[in-house]
Amino acid sequence: MTSTSMERDLGLVLDLIASKRKASGRTIIGIAGPPASGKSTLAESVVLALNAENPSTTPHAVLLPMDGYHLDNRLLESRGLLSRKGAPETFNAEGFCQAVIRLQNVDRETFYPKFDRQMDLSIANSIAIQPDTPVVVVEGNYLLLREQPWASLQDVFAATVFVCPSMDALKDRLKQRWLKHGLDPEAALLRTTGNDLPNAELVVTESISADLHLTQNYTEFGVRYAY
Q1: Other beta carbons within 10 Å of 68
Q2: What's 39's domain CATH number?
Q3: H-type helices in 56-127, by residue range?
Q4: How many domains does the chain fold into?
């Protein structure tokens, strides 16, 4: 399935979640896609919509982004991986996947890290998930990769969504992102082609099929494109 409308895409995802909701326990949804695909914007919109539909003192839905599991810049630098930040090997993949698997346990409140883009680091215990929150939306680039440890998540997700515009659109979005971060055009293109596009190609070629595939074009809504 494809769509170019944010509103239409949101409706499709909400319909999918409704059809896959568990009668008891927690429903965990995976939204994956390459960097700058628009998946973060979509995931945030899904959580906002679910909470608006189900007002409560306890959030009905919570967003858990993969970005909180970035390895620290100092560690990446010591390993010669700082220029590759965003690649699979620059995440605590095992820790992230174990955390997602533990979401199935609803006997207590749990806490998770969140990535601060302005500070360029992860802040521990920034996301709280209550035991009676019935839906968790997990978002990230590599959720559907065939290789371990990512493959361990396949049986955890009640439903999955894959977000991917064309590679040309991704290249333009990625370059624009680095320009907004203050890089000159040459440096922005180098970061895009040297790191981001290879990561995007990996996601596109090595991810399993999702329940719903969306090709997004959100420029008409003026939204941001996140990792």
Answers
A1: 22
A2: 3.40.50.300
A3: 73-78, 93-102
A4: 1
Please state, in angstroms and rounded to a whole number, the distance separating the CA atoms of residues 115 and 95: 15
**Would you say residue 225 lies in a domain?**
no
Cβ burial, residue 215 (10 Å; 0-12/13-18/19+): middle
Q: Within 13 A of 27's CA, how many CA atoms are on the CB side?
A: 20
Backbone angles phi, psi at 123, to 5 degrees: -110, 120
pTM: 0.89
What is the C-alpha to C-alpha distance for residues 86 and 70, in angstroms, rounded to an integer? 8
Distance of alpha carbon 11 from alpha carbon 134, whole angstroms: 19
Amino acid at 47: V
Structural domain range at position 93? 6-219
Residue in this structure with the two tokens 């999955």, named with its chain if needed: 160
The CB-based long-range contact list for 39-42 (8 Å cut-off, 24+ gap) reads: 39/139, 39/140, 39/161, 39/163, 39/226, 40/65, 40/139, 40/225, 40/226, 40/227, 41/6, 41/218, 41/223, 41/224, 41/225, 41/226, 42/6, 42/9, 42/10, 42/13, 42/161, 42/163, 42/214, 42/216
- Between CA 212 and CA 150 the distance in angstroms is 19
C-alpha dihedral (208, 81, 83, 68), degrees to nearest 10: 60
What's the CA gap between 115 and 98, in Å, rounded? Answer: 18
Tokens found for residue 144: 């559907």
Answer left, alpha or beta for residue 169, where phi above 0 means left and psi between -120 and 50 means alpha: alpha
Is residue 226 a part of any domain in this protein? no
Higher pLDDT, residue 168 or 191: 168
Residue 217: which pLDDT band, with cuts at 50, 70 and 90? low
- Look-up of token digits 């608006």: 52
